[in-house]
Amino acid sequence: MAGHALSDVFVSYKREDQSRVLPMVAGLRQAGLSVAWDRDIPGGARWRQTLVEHLDSAPCVIVVWSEASAGPAGEFVHDEASRAKSRAALLPVRIDSVAEPLGFGEIQSLDLVDWAGELDDSRFQDVVAAAKKMSIGGERATGKKTRTAPPAARDLLSWLLRLVPAYLTDLLNLMSGPKQFLADRARQGSGWQAGVPFFVISALVSFALDLPFVRNPLVELLSGLVFAGVYVLLYGYATYFAWRVVGATATVHQFFAIHFYLAGVLKLIQTVTVVVCLGVLRGGDPALYDELMKAVSSGNALGWTLQEVGTPRPIWRFAGLVVYGGFGTMFAWVVIGWGAYRRLTGLRKLRSILAFLLFCALCLPVYVVTTVIATALVR
Predict the structure, then answer these.
(1) How far apart are CA 287 and CA 290, in angstroms?
(2) Which of 134, 182, 205, 218 sees the fewest Cβ atoms within 10 Å?
(3) Three-state DSSP class for residue 306
(4) pLDDT digit string (tens) for 283-308?
């Protein structure tokens, strides 16, 4: 955009709502985002042209839906929303309890109804997080559309590195308040899309931790990503089916918004557990470690492990304690995640328990399928 600084965010709203939108703009700027809106653009012959340049260049366009902007009188806001939607830069925010205009209902709006301007309000923090995520993923280049899809293979590493700050922020939020964070993510229209890169980065971090124990890194990386993709989808649909049976009405996208985040953290816990266990075995009993690696390579890790359960070797028992601790942590995380599903669905505790029991029953066939796939991949 020649002659004008690019902004992270463009705010589209109805002029009657200016006093209500001003705290949002101030809060976004305080959060470190550069924001463009019509109040900052000087009047004159090029006012509308300058406004359009900001609209077409910002990686994130926040469209404020209100009683004024969502109705027939908000045609300019509708037009700006359409332009943002056409390049996947639209971030809708509601400040009144109104339905999105026709054509915008498939993108769920973030809710700031009755927001009093508090910057620490979790709903406003969701808006900030979503805007930052879109700004990180957007392409800041003059005269070009924002790219929301991952770049070409040669730019993949750069793209992932740009996602790291958002990943660390999400990880911190998951550790501090997982149920609310996950439920809020599920209610966002693009929540599941944010969960995918979170899971992918978690898988890559896990692979990096595994490297000291990997014999063929490229093969392990590709097979690991294939396996991770399969099991996260299978367990995700098992979760969705279990909740649907007990009466949940949330969409599959909302369930997967939670599931990708849960799976990412579970992947990290599992990897740390395995790496510590293998490190203990390799350092304490190299011969036992070699036996285990041979069993893994032959696809007989489970059978070999069951044979060694009763071994009197202290190092094996210590490694077993590490495994029990790790899997206990994973189970606790699943229970926490289940609370997020319950918060999303609004169902009572009894139905939540029934859904969990059904999910556990579905885990058996899923485990069998994933074990067959894992065995095929290691061979």
Answers:
(1) 5
(2) 218
(3) helix
(4) 888 887 777 777 766 666 666 666 66
Phi-psi map region of 308: left, alpha, beta (phi>0 left; psi -120 to 50 alpha): alpha
For the chain, which residues make up each domain, given as ranges?
A: 9-137, 153-378
Which two tokens mark 138?
């957007």
Write the burial class of residue 379 (CB in 10 Å: 0-12 exposed, 13-18 middle, 19+ buried). Answer: exposed
Which candidate, 282, 262, 276, 379, places its Cα nearest to that of 331? 262
Residue with tokens 């470190």: 32
In CATH, which superfamily holds the domain spanning 9-137? Toll/interleukin-1 receptor homology (TIR) domain (3.40.50.10140)
Dihedral (CA of 370, 373, 378, 379) sign: positive
Distance CA 342, CA 344 (A): 5
- Please state, as a whole number, how many other Cβ atoms lie within 10 Å of the Cβ of residue 204: 15
- The tokens of 275 are what? 């790496």
Which residues lie closer than 8 Å to 101 by C-beta, 6 or more apart?
Answer: 65, 70, 74, 78, 81
Q: Which pair of tokens denotes residue 182?
A: 């996950």
User: What phi and psi, each to the nearest 5 degrees, are found at residue 142?
Assistant: -60, 130
Q: Which residues pair with 60 in a beta bridge?
A: 9
Model confidence band, residue 140 (pLDDT cutoffs 50, 70, 90): very low
